[in-house]
């Protein structure tokens, strides 16, 4: 049984999406995307650090041949999006003519993703698709094609299942939301 509340640094968080709910939604997403990618041998590109847990579960829910290249981007400072991306770890191999599936934990303003899609396209992949576990529809500022989204959530800050608040909370198996009460 998960804890209903957790304290991280100075803030209180309350349970938002449980690990069981996440598991069944991730399996659904894997099933959905498997129809399209069955014969395309795509490359999964999880964006570290936040997406590592989602990526590990999601790729196992996908039923097709694939490989993986991890990239690392830093764009957040505490609870604020900085609007700039810093590619700390880039593509480790050739993605030219490959079908790329970017795996993201959460899309907030969309700044990170917009910049990263631009960067990805300079390598001339055959196609680029985004899978994100979470999306904050009221925060996104860009028109980015988003085909595979786990949950559309309100604008409150969330932690757990890979997502951190200043490097803490990442290893929690459930997702918690900032508790303003
Ligand atoms: P964006 O560039 O504003 O879309 O932010 C994307 C990145 O910010 C995500 O990949 C996360 O690492 C981080 N982020 C955005 N919202 C949250 C949140 O509520 N909790 C934890 N990290 C977040």
Question: What does this 3D model show about the protein?
Answer:
With about 180 residues, the protein is α/β, with parallel strands linked by helices. It has a single domain (about 20-155), classed as Rossmann fold (3-Layer(aba) Sandwich). It is about 20% helix and about 35% strand. It has three helices and eleven strands. It has helices at about 20-35, 50-60, 110-120, and strands at about 5-10, 10-15, 45-50, 65-70, 70-75, 80-90, 100-105, 125-135, 150, 160, 175-180. The strands form two sheets. Strands 3, 4, 5, 6, 7, 8 and 9 form a seven-stranded mixed sheet that branches. A four-stranded antiparallel sheet has the order 1-2-11-10. A hairpin with a 2-residue loop joins β5 and β6 (about 80-90). α1 (about 20-35) packs across α2 (about 50-60). The longest helix is centred in the N-terminal third of the chain and has 19 residues, at about 20-35. The protein is globular and about 50 Å long. It binds inosinic acid. Inosinic acid binds near residues 104, 106, 107 and 163.
